[in-house]
Amino acid sequence: MRTIATHTGKIYVNKDRRLEFLTVGDYGKENNIKADFLGLCQEINGVLHRPVDLTKKWVATISSQKGCPMNCQFCDCPKYGFYGNATLDDLRYQIETILQNEAVNHTDRFNVHFARMGEPTFNQNILVFAQDELRVLVGKYITAKTVHPVVSTMLPKKNTLLEEFVLSWCRIKNLDYQGEAGLQFSINSTDDKQRNFQFNNKSLSLTEISELAEKLPMPVGRKYTLNFAVTKDTILDAKVLTNLFSLQKFIVKITPIHETHSAIQNGFDVTTSYDDYDVYRQFERPLVQMGWDVIVFVPSREEDQDRITCGNALISGM
């Protein structure tokens, strides 16, 4: 296994298991998030790197699959190929490796994102692991006031078990975790043509996603998230979004499309998103005016250079 040090944590690459996963600390929401509904109203024109404290918030980003079959145009994971789902033992291994290799025995918050490589809704092991094993496993190594798992899905049209998985995850979120779990839909654009390009025509249409969203129970605790990874060319129509999704169930999260090799090769403008809030303001303001709770998340240059952000996969270049 290879371990790569980053400014905020470590990336682990195990070529034998065909897995890549990482551990990072957090700058603190006041430093890289704008969310008026949370009282965080300062526009972010660049995020300065600063020391992180794992005892406050510790983030583990693990792979649900070995590579990814989705072939999104902004993501490097498809460059690696696809070798199937992570097993339950693979999921345990990733979390244990992360926990064993830090001199930390307590954290206020331990977040687990099934988001390094793979589309989690293809892997039923995620449901079993989160419901039955994750909290027990974390408790063997550290005390955590909160364990918060998050599923982010590209909503693959060829997954015949997509609805079943998503509804099962909602039950786990609302009942097993009493709201302390996350569900994120990767939307990226309110224009189906633009979405079809970005997701290589493998994601559901917006209408189909809206129909699935209507079936979701009201969230306990945190609302579900509609995620938009944006550039200045993104089409995000607040009226279209409001007609399709419930403000009572969902919040909107806006992030940049990251500087992956694929994003650059496929012509995404990823050169201005980190130090110019103008890129985000054009999307944020109309949504807020229509009553949406909006989170704008901006990474630091160091985080993107370290390739810890979504869409990266160092294993694809090894």
Description of the molecule:
By secondary structure, this protein is of the alpha/beta class. It is 31% helix and 23% strand. It has helices at 29-32, 77-80, 88-100, 125-139, 162-176, 192-198, 206-215, 238-244, 261-265, 278-289, 301-305; strands at 2-5, 9-14, 19-25, 33-34, 58-62, 65-67, 82-85, 106-114, 143-153, 182-186, 224-230, 250-256, 294-297. The protein has an eleven-stranded mixed sheet. A two-stranded antiparallel sheet has the order 6-7. Helix 3 (88-100) packs parallel to helix 4 (125-139). The protein starts with a strand and ends in a 13-residue tail after the last helix. The relative contact order is 0.17. The model has no long low-confidence stretch (mean pLDDT 95).
Structural class: alpha/beta
Number of strands: 13
Q: Mean of residue pLDDT? A: 95
**Secondary structure tally, helices:** 11
Please give the alpha-carbon distance between the first and last residues: 12 Å
Write out the strand line-up for the largest beta sheet, numbering strands in chain order: 1-2-3-5-8-9-10-11-12-13-4
The geometry reads as globular
Sketch the topology as an H/E string, one letter per element: EEEHEEEHEHEHEHEHHEHEHHEH
Contiguous runs where pLDDT drops below 50 for at least 5 residues: none
Largest sheet geometry: 11 strands, mixed
Helical content class: 25-40%
Q: Could you name the key traits of this structure?
A:
eleven-stranded mixed β-sheet, two-stranded antiparallel ribbon, 318 residues, globular, 13 strands
